[in-house]
Structures are given as C-alpha cells and as structure tokens.
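Appendix B. One record, verbatim.
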Amino acid sequence: MNINKISTQSCPGIFFFALLFQAHAAVSATDEQSSFVEIGAGYTVSDNIYKSADSKKTGSSATADMSLGYKQTFTTTDIALNYYTEYTQENEKALQNDNYWTGNALISQQVFNKNLLFNLEHTRRRYLIDPSQADDNNQNENDFLKAGLQWSIPYSNRTTFMLGADHTETWFAGNSATSDSNSNQGLLSWQYALSEKAQVEVSYSGSEKKFDNFNERYRQKKLDTKLTRSYLLGTYSLNIGETWVDSRSEQNNGEHYGFTINAQIRKHLFTFNSSKTLTDSSREFETAEPIAFVENTLFWYTYLSLEHQYIMLNDNLVSNLRFDFQRSEQLTAIDELDVEDKYGAFGELTWSLTESLSSSLSVSYYRTNLTSSAIKKVTEAEVSAKYNLTPSLYIKLSAAFEKQDDMQNTSGYKEQYYTSRIAYRY
C-alpha cells in the first residue's frame, strides 16, 4: 500500500510555471544523467477473489510489470520521465484480465536564452469510474498534456516579472471519453525578494475551459498574493486570492487560499497543509492517488492535512503518520453546490534491519460521504519484507487485509491476500 503526499497549491497553473522555472534555474553547467529500467513479476493468492460479501472464493493472479525512468540535464534542456506498465492475469474466467500504464514526463527547453522556456508535460493517471463502488476493477486511465511558453524578466536584484501561456488537453479512457476537455491559460506574475529568507509574489491568471460535449466555455480569472519565508525550524508559505468563473448563463466567485508550514525538531518533522481552490473534473492539481471522477463539473476543493515523521534507531526505523480531510463542493449548475467529504488516517513503519533486508507495516482508513445515504469506508493494512539478493535484484513478500463497506448498492466485502514479487533493475 502506497502512502502518498498531496500537493496543496491553491493555484495549480501558477505553480506549474513557477516549478518549471525553479527546476531549470537549478541546472548546473555540468550535464548529469540518471536512468533505470525495472522488470518485475508477482503472484497473488486471495481468499475473496470476487470481492464478494456473501460467497467467498479463493483465487490467484499473476502480474508482470515494467518501470522506466530517465533523467537528463543539458546546458539548455531538461528531460525527466517516469512510466510504469502492468499486466495482470486472473485464474478465474469470470474476471477480466487487467492491463494499464501510467507515468509522467517533463521537458523544458531554453529558447534563445535561459529566461525564455518552452515546457512540455504529460501525465497519465488512474481514475475511479464510479466513486461509490469498490476501488478495484473500477478504474481507467486519464491523460493530461500541457504545452506552454514561460518568460522570466529580471528587473533588478530583488524584482522579477514573469509572463506565461499554456494549452492543455485532457482525455479520459473508456466510457468517460465524452468528458474530454481542453483549456488555455495566460499568466502575469511579479516576484519581489524581501530578504534572503522571504519572498512575496503577486500574480494574475486567466483561463478558458471547454468540455467536448458542452456548448459552453467556462472562463476563470485568478488574482493571488503569496508570501514564502524560511524560519528557525523550517519554512512556511501563505497565499490568498480571489477566483472568478463565468459562462454565458452563470457566474460564480469566491476566495481561495493556501497555507503550508513545516518544522524540524530534532528527529521529528511536522508538516501542516491547508488549501481551497476552484478546479474542475480533470483534477489539474497534484495527487498520486486515483482521482475520483466527476463528470464535467467545476468544484471548490478544500484540503487539510497534518503529517508527522519520526526517525529513530540510528536512522534505521522511520515512522510516518498523516491525518487529512478533503471536501469537494461541486458546482452542479454553477451557482449550486453538491458537497462530498472525505477524511482519513494513514500510518507506516519502515525498518531497515540490515543493508539487504528491510520490512514495513502500513495501515490506512478513509471515509467518504458521497451522499446523505451513501457512505464509503475503506480499511487497509499490509506487512511486507524486502530482501536484496544483489544490488540489482530483489524479492518482496507481503500480506494484506482490505475491507470496504457501506457502499451504495452493495454491502461491501473483506479480503486477505498474499503476494510474492521478484524484480530486476538496471
């Protein structure tokens, strides 16, 4: 079970421009290269292969997967990509074999000089076809392609202006293909260094969103002010602003915000995030979790999280805890709201026993209030051990428990499954 962090940037388009510029500015004159290919195979035995509440049946599945990573830095070009593909074959004829691929790529190219960049980004993620049903066998893929130009204009030692424009295409595989969309965005930003430890930024962006099966185009405008500062124990960032969205028939506006602070106290690292942003069903904010797809809608997304990491036993034992809350306030008719809440807790212990042997224990629980009568609750736990036979070859054994219940039109299920995996990386 992967426990992933969610970014809390309240202006994802602005964050995209800033992130690319900072990444490219950090490039050294010396070219660096990093790449890998990993090929793996796994075998899983489950005591409830059909994920049934009433009639459990033992079954098995075999999985083959491959990961590809590539990173290269030149004087004028940055290339970074990471892709993963998986094929699973079930031993039960009533179950469909599953195959998919996900990943991301980012290319940044200087145009004429280091201050003008052409950026190309691709992301392929999984999404939940029906959020009210079980997560397994209920996912498909979503592609996100963004291309844009970014011009940084240094005005003085403390002041920098930034201009940007990008075009985005979003595709949904499967039955949600009619929800494909595209958007265009422009950005104007002013950055001022208050000191070596503090920076303020004021930005304005405008965008237009078009869903393929809608006749209307949605136009958004954002005005944002952001303060970033480092202090004795860590860093913090605060941004506030206003967002406006309108179509030919409706209008809506509201305040967005974002606040992040971390504190390092000896072996303890605390991180708090809070944000609210107006986004849409293509979910153009950063998340490594499968997105819960909502057809062709705009919604306010609120996120709160508190994380704690503790390192002990000479850095061999690492504890991670996270509590978070998510709220999606869907604009069903632009001026109406349909609220969905999700909250949960996550915990993980990772122990490096020797240079070759490590183990981990993870537990998670989340609850989603889909409607007043439909509540989805998911509990997962996993214990695993990994042994490196060589620096390139490893085996991994794991045992897991999963429970989903109180879902709409189903009474839920319980499942225990055991997995063995071997992988080679070069």
